[in-house]
Structures are given as structure tokens and as C-alpha cells.
From TrEMBL, chains A, B:
Belongs to the isocitrate and isopropylmalate dehydrogenases family. LeuB type 1 subfamily. It catalyses: (2R,3S)-3-isopropylmalate + NAD(+) = 4-methyl-2-oxopentanoate + CO2 + NADH. It is an enzyme of class 1 (oxidoreductase). The lineage of its organism: Bacteria, Pseudomonadati, Pseudomonadota, Alphaproteobacteria, Rhodobacterales. Binds 1 Mg(2+) or Mn(2+) ion per subunit. This is 3-isopropylmalate dehydrogenase. Signal peptide: none annotated. Pfam families: Iso_dh.
Length: 364, 364
């Protein structure tokens, strides 16, 4: 059997820095646990634009399709703000999601015990928080046609199209129900069925899949605006939340911020199983490219490292190894090791990106 | 000169209860301050559906067009969940907004000193919070065509259309800039220009209006997902936020929940000036119809009363009278008078809807 293959796309801003720490972890698994990965690296986002005039080269796209999993750092930066919409760094990421058909975006929002004080929310509201947002990632208003800026009479009009087919809704609903079975067995689906017909269809299909295929999982529905409120008020009421691409974008970022430590949160974007049984998969931290601190050794590599842990779990069926890596992160935090983003006003001095990576390696 | 006219639409759930308290306040202004309103009352939402088979009768629509201001309670309830999309209670409210062309929805999120402990956020994060969200209310995905559920091949597809013209963006941007000049002089505009062309046009037009007409107002832009995060992390960084109909729906509810007291928050929906110079206007509390507590005398009437205060300020240019009413609310809260929704676990016993109304009257 050949080694599992990984394509690494560090991207822009702090992407390369945090990914360098992940490489150390990958090497450790090869050397110490006998899990050798075939690792290749390539460009995405602004870095790809600088080299090739496109945020994702066709060769890179082809490579992403052929590996077992893609690990991405972050894309974007002010330098690229002036670029035309069609070649913005984000288009590279969106093309990967779309062409690999990564329809289920898993965004855990977990509050680490050692960091519960760090949230802007009261400790009792977030301590022990552990929810999973499943965001539809390859359809909806992100990809619907027609789209663009058109001239009508004497003015311009900006148009995007929200669009969901029954099967698109059904498959992401199944992902959410499957996850719920392995967690708290509850799914809450969010849309605006009171205002949008796409939401009416969404609600109906999720309910049908629940009734027919997952009658054992508790299912509820909530309007997305109420969802934003309830996430803020008492997030622990939720287990798995399933929602569309655009609502998922806002709600998963909101949920991430509840934990107070964006630098800690990983994500997985999964598609259908490939010939080898593994799902098409891309893993990336929730945080962005943070151009303001890029290149200064200040970035927190944990979100990216935990994204690799998700890869171990979801792509390679190495749940015990993922636990081991997550345990090392917990242990380092319990020791009080902190990058700058994890510092409270109270003081102490922060460790660098590399020092944090090394501390986690040492715990492994 | 004729008396200013008000159309009252109590609607569903707790709507009638909270509106009854507002009627007392209105009467007080007539008797004690010589500000007599011509008040009429009519049905909207489920109540209108029950009576007429439509959530807004044409006669009611015509009346709403002819008065100086509309005051609405709340619409909706589980009883109406089974209704067809086209006659759901919400359609009544949406028709009012659309046909009166109430394009600027003003949603203040203010944290009352006496209630700062009440938020799920830490006190220092929300104490003194005072932000104003200006949500576009008559366009975007709420009204764009095509929309509906269609059959394509062997499955159905749900479609909605996000659509903004330059002039729709420009007029709501002006509302936001005008408000900012009377407040903290800062506007933050939110969209997803990195993903949606309608957001690209939004950003461009807001920037142009700012540059050309309001160079004195500080303008910034944020992606809506980052906006949701920043509202959660440190909401006091904002003064006025301007955003589209759908993002505004989520973000204004999120901002409302930051204050911890949804039962306190009013809103104004304003359109273009009428012949008498007053803007077309509808005022409503941010909270919904709360069917679970309807008819029990438990509802908090303050949001609805403060909505009337907004009417005094924005429709009738009676800022000093609005201050007086808002002051009475503050005074009652400072005295520790609380409806059930404002009770902490610590105890004390709540007052009823009527008692709260009477307490505010007494302070006036
Ligand atoms: C970078 C951007 C295109 C992206 C999105 O909007 O999906 C990001 O916000 C995310 O959530 O992964
Ligand atoms: C009741 C519903 C149609 C409405 C909306 O989505 O606009 C409500 O959520 C609001 O924000 O006023």
C-alpha cells in the first residue's frame, strides 16, 4: 500500500509560518509513529497570483484532486484588494472547494478549559462549550448563477443567486445527522424559511431526511437570525448545527468567536468518498491570513495543527493519533504556554510561533 | 393644523398586550402634554389572516399609507406555521415595509446601565454600549426576483435572488451617514465583497457616497462574517453599522442579544419624506410575538414603548418628549422594577406587563 498523500498549500500572510509548524508535526508522525505521508507543497491565493497571475494554477488544482487530503493555511491580504474579483486570492480557495465538491464544512467551536476566561462571554456561558457547525460549502449564493454587476437603464445593479437543489440539501443534512450520532445526537437546522423559498425547501428536505433516515436523532429548526441570538445567549443548547453556505459563513465565525480563541479553531471540508474510500478533503484553520502580524513569528499555529488532527481523524481514520495530537495541545495550554493572541492583559510573556510548535512536539 | 395620526397594528402573540401599555402612554401625552394623536387600530399578521384570510388587508395597507406613522406589535405564531408561504403572518409585515418603501431600518443596540449584568457577555464588554445598525429593508434577497421552488429534471430547486441597484444602496448609505453625524461620526459598512458581486457594488457605492457627500464621517468596511465576530468580541468599536437586508437581519439580532435584554429594544423603519415633510415610518419592537408567554401578562412592554419614543423623535420631531419618555424608562429600571424577562436568577418578584406600563406612566 502506498503512503497517504498530503498537498500543503500555505497561502498568504501567516499561512506559511503556521504551516511550517504543522510540517514538524507531520515529520514527527513519520519518524516516531511510522505514519509516513507523501507531502508536496504548492501555491494558492495571493502567492499563486504573484507567481502565475491566477489564485490557483490548473496544475495545483489537478494535484489537489489526486491527493488524499489538502492542508491549507490562509489566503488574502490588503495587497490584493485592488485585484479584479475574478483573480482575488479567495477565488483560489473557492475553486478548490467547488471543483473538489467539498460540500460539508465541519467547524467545531470548542472552548478549551485553559482558555475559558478568554472569551468576551461570561465563563459559565462558554466553559465546556463543544458544538459542531456543518456548513454547506459548494452551493448557495456563493456559486449561484446569474451573478455579476449589470447595467439596467441608467444605473448598475449587483446580482447574486441563492440556489439549492434537494440533493444538495440532502447530502449535507446526512453529514450533519451522521456527526450528531457520534456526538450529542441533536441537529438544529437554520434558515430563513419565513422569508426565503430556498429556506422553505431547505427545511422540508432536512426534515424528510431526518424522519426517513435518522429518526433516532433529535431534529429542530430555527430561523437564522434567532440562531445568531441563541448562539450568543446560550450556545450550549446546541450540538450539531446544519446551515447553508452564507448563513454558515456568519454563524460559524460567530460561534468561533464565542470561544474567544480564533487561533485555536480548525475546520474540515469534506466531499464524497474517492475510489480508496477516503473522502475528498481539505483542512484549514478558521482564522484568516492576519496580514498585520505576518512574518513576525507571532501567529498561533494551533488552529492549523488541529486542522491536521482533523485530517488524521476524518481522512486517515487515525482517531487515536488525532486524540494524541489534541491531547498534546491541551497539555501545552494547561502548562500556560501562550502565543500573543492567547495572552490576557494580566501579563506573562508570549511564545513565538516556533516555540509553540516545539512545545507541542515536546508533549507528543 | 390637524393632529398627527398614528395607525396601531398590535398583531399577534404578545403584540396586543404590549401595545395596550403604549396606548396609555399615548393618552398621557395627549392629556398632559397637549400632544393629541389621531389614533386608529387595525389587524396585521395572523390576526388579519384569521379575520380576512390575508395577513394584511388592502384597506389596512391604504390606511398605513395615509397616516403619519405606523406602530406595530409583532407578527407570527406556531398556529400559522402550516400556512402557505404567501399568506404567512410575516408577509403582512413585509408588504408594509415594501409598499411604504421603508428602506432604512434603524436598530439601536443599547445597553441600559441597570441591566448590564444581564448580558451573556462580560459586563466590561457591553456596559455603556450604544450602537446603531442601519439595515436596508426593502430590497436584497427579501424581495429579489426570480424566487420560488421550481422543478428541474427530477428534483426541485429553491431559488432566491439578491439584487441591489446603485440608488438603493446610495439612499440607505445616506441614512447611515446622516445618523452618524448626530452620533459618533463613524460608519462601518458590512457585506461579502470577497464572494458576492452585489457586495462589490455595495462597497463601491457606500465609499463613493462617503467620499463625495460625507467626507467628514469616518468610513470603514468589513466582511459580514468578520463583522459578526467583531460585534461579539468588542462591540464598542462600532458607532453606526450599515448593511443589507439579510445581513442586517442577522447582525441586528446579534447586536440586540449582546445587550442581554431583547425586551428593551425598539426599531424604526423609515422611508422618503411625505408631502408634510415627515418620513414614511413604521415603528416596532425588535422582539417577536413570543407565543409561549402570550396572554399571560408577562411580556415586557418597554421595547414597544421605546418604539413609540422613536416615533416621537423621528416622525414628529419631538426629541425632548422622546428624551422624557426614555428617561422615565431608565428611572423605572433604576428603581429595580422588572418584568419576568429582566429577572436574574437572584430573585425578587417580577411585575406584570400592566404594572410595568403603570410604573413608567408614574415616572412621566
Ligand atoms: C475567505 C472567504 C472566501 C471564506 C468564505 O467566505 O467562505 C471565509 O470567510 C471562510 O469562511 O472560509
Ligand atoms: C419576521 C421577519 C419577517 C423579520 C425579518 O426577517 O425581517 C424579522 O426577523 C425582523 O428582523 O424584523
Amino acid at each position: 500500500m502506498t503512503n497517504p498523500s498530503l498537498l500543503i498549500l500555505p497561502g498568504d500572510g501567516i499561512g506559511p509560518e503556521v504551516m511550517a509548524e504543522v510540517r514538524k508535526i507531520i515529520d514527527w508522525f513519520g519518524a516516531r509513529r511510522g505514519i509516513a505521508f507523501e507531502v508536496s507543497e504548492d501555491l494558492v491565493g495571493g502567492a499563486a497570483y504573484d507567481a502565475h497571475g491566477t489564485p490557483l494554477h490548473d496544475d495545483t488544482m489537478a494535484r489537489a484532486q489526486s491527493v488524499d487530503a489538502v492542508l491549507l493555511g490562509a489566503v488574502g491580504g490588503p495587497k490584493y484588494d485592488v485585484l479584479d474579483f475574478s483573480v482575488k486570492p479567495e477565488r483560489g480557495l473557492l475553486r478548490l472547494r467547488k471543483e473538489m465538491d467539498l460540500y460539508a464544512n465541519l467547524r467545531p467551536a470548542q472552548c478549551f478549559d485553559a482558555l475559558a476566561d478568554f472569551s468576551s462571554l461570561k465563563k459559565e456561558v462558554v466553559a465546556g462549550l463543544d458544538i459542531m457547525i456543518v456548513r454547506e460549502l459548494t452551493s448557495g449564493v456563493y456559486f449561484g448563477e446569474p451573478r455579476g454587476i449589470f447595467t439596467e437603464g441608467n444605473e448598475r445593479v449587483g446580482i447574486n443567486t441563492q440556489r439549492y437543489t434537494e440533493s444538495e440539501i440532502a447530502r449535507v443534512a446526512r453529514s450533519a445527522f451522521e456527526l450528531a450520532r457520534r456526538r450529542g445526537n441533536k441537529v438544529c437546522s437554520m434558515e430563513k424559511a419565513n422569508v426565503m423559498e430556498s429556506g422553505v425547501l431547505w427545511r422540508e428536505v432536512v426534515q424528510r431526511i431526518g424522519d426517513e433516515e435518522y429518526p433516532d436523532v433529535e431534529l429542530s429548526h430555527m430561523y437564522a437570525d434567532a440562531g445568531a441570538m441563541q448562539l450568543t445567549r446560550w450556545p450550549k443548547q446546541f450540538d450539531v448545527i446544519v446551515t447553508d453556505n452564507l448563513f454558515g459563513d456568519l454563524l460559524s465565525d460567530l460561534a468561533a468567536m464565542l470561544t474567544g480563541s480564533l487561533g485555536m479553531l480548525p475546520s474540515a471540508s469534506l466531499g464524497a468518498p474517492m475510489a480508496n474510500g477516503r473522502p475528498k478533503a481539505l483542512y484549514e484553520p478558521v482564522h484568516g491570513s492576519a496580514p498585520d502580524i505576518a512574518g513576525q513569528g507571532k501567529a498561533n499555529p494551533i488552529a492549523c495543527i488541529l486542522s491536521f488532527a482533523m485530517a488524521l481523524r476524518y481522512s486517515f481514520d487515525l482517531g487515536a493519533e488525532a486524540d494524541r495530537l489534541e491531547g498534546a495541545v491541551q497539555a501545552v495550554l494547561a502548562d500556560g504556554v501562550r502565543t500573543a493572541d492567547l495572552m490576557q492583559a494580566e501579563g506573562g510573556s508570549p511564545v513565538s510561533t516556533t516555540q509553540m510548535g516545539d512545545a507541542i512536539l515536546a508533549k507528543l
